[in-house]
Amino acid sequence: MIGITSCVRANVRLRFVLDEQPADLRDRRIARVVVARLGGMPDIPNASAPMEPASAAAAVIRRMEPRVAEVTDAVQQVILAEIAELRGDPQLIELLRASVEGNVTTIFAAIRHGIDVAGVTAPVAAVEYARRLAQHDVTPNALVRAYRLGQQELLRLVFAEVRAGGSGHDTALEVFEATFNATSQYIDWISEQVIEVYRLELDRWREGRERILGDQVRRILDGTVGHVDDLSSALRYPLRQHSLAVILWYPQPVLERGELIGMERFLRAAAKHVGATTAPLFLAHDRSTAWGWIPLSASSVDGAVTALREMADRDGSAPSVAIGAPRSGVEGFVRSHELAQHARAVALRAAGHDRVSVASGDPGVVIAAMLDGDLSTADVWVREVLGPLAEPTESDAHLRHSLQVFLEAGASFTAAAPLLHLHTNTVKYRVRKAVERRGRPIEEGRLDVEIALLLCRRFPAILEPNWH
């Protein structure tokens, strides 16, 4: 016998021909094709006149009702075979069977007694199953698909019963039409109910879980910690490994109410990109800011920050990212978050409303973090140290860059030249011009000069007239 899936494909192929026809004629022709694709029902010469569709369908269902358990098992097996998300948890599988049985029993009663399915309430087990799926973060698509697969299998079983009963072709067609219409209406109506239950439970469950998760994380950050393995189990996060903390936010509400969803999606993609050992830990700090931790193996630590930065810079829809540094254990979990907080404080002051990615290891960030992210007076200090060299002009920017590279190269013109892609004599000229612009020899406060150059490079906005 050709499966019910084949008949559905036939249904789809016919829709472009039948869409403009009256509904009753269209449904009847579709059902005739379904019967034909399922193997046909030869007319029996001596068969009695066809019964009314309702009574014929009721008679078939009456014969099947003693085998509800068998029907339930068949439907459940199809659902579990096709939808991997619904397999694995024994309690969920048991509840799935109760849900299937409740739906099958309700459909049978509706068909047998001519009950309008539009007024039927979802079975208790079906409602509870939707709640449990929400609590396990199973997608609602899996729930809807389960209902559709269940309908297909139930129709196959009904038609097998029709064939076994030896009814004529017209009677078989009428029974199938009646059953198809009743189950379709039932699935549409019940799906709305269970999906709404799923949505409400998901919101409630996530809010409760976020609240518990937030309390646990904040206790760790405050230094109130218990046994590391117990904490790892509660958080579903491997605290013994290296952690790379990040703070995520959108400078502007580009996603309207979907900011947190966008940030969580980015964190999961970033964790996969940098080679996380398990799923990252995501915590909504408020409606526009999120905290995250990415678990890393020892072999993934090197290069993780760079890879994360590059991914954020390439993705134009990514949130702003402040990145800590990989650290191990519970202490590392806390310290990496502290570094990310420092980086964010600096980034907010420097970037304003622009999207940005900042790492605690970036030049100048540690120094700014030592000031607790307060750069409100940095422009005054930088101008005091650099003099006219701190002017926001393109020529001064070139001179500052040349001087910084020269100092980082150990004050060696020869070592600085290839780094700047310049001739040695050109480097000497630029360094001399930079010293002249400053108005004092480099030896006078060299450490201050290097710090001021770092701040100019990392936060060029502090040189602008409207910095405050």
The 3D shape can be described as elongated
Mean pLDDT: 80
Q: Estimate the helix proportion, in percent.
A: 55-70%
- What multimeric state do the chains show? single chain
Enumerate the spans where pLDDT stays under 50 for 5 or more consecutive residues.
1-51
Number of strands: 6
The tally of helices reads 18
What's the number of structural domains? 3
Percentage beta strand: 5-15%
The name CATH uses for the topology of the largest domain is: Globin-like
Label the CATH architecture of the largest domain: Orthogonal Bundle
Pfam families: GGDEF_2, HTH_30, RsbRD_N
Family: Belongs to the CdaR family.
InterPro entries: CdaR-like_regulators (IPR051448), CdaR_GGDEF (IPR041522), PucR_C-HTH_dom (IPR025736), PucR_C-HTH_sf (IPR042070), RsbRD_N_dom (IPR025751)
Domain PucR C-terminal helix-turn-helix: 399-454
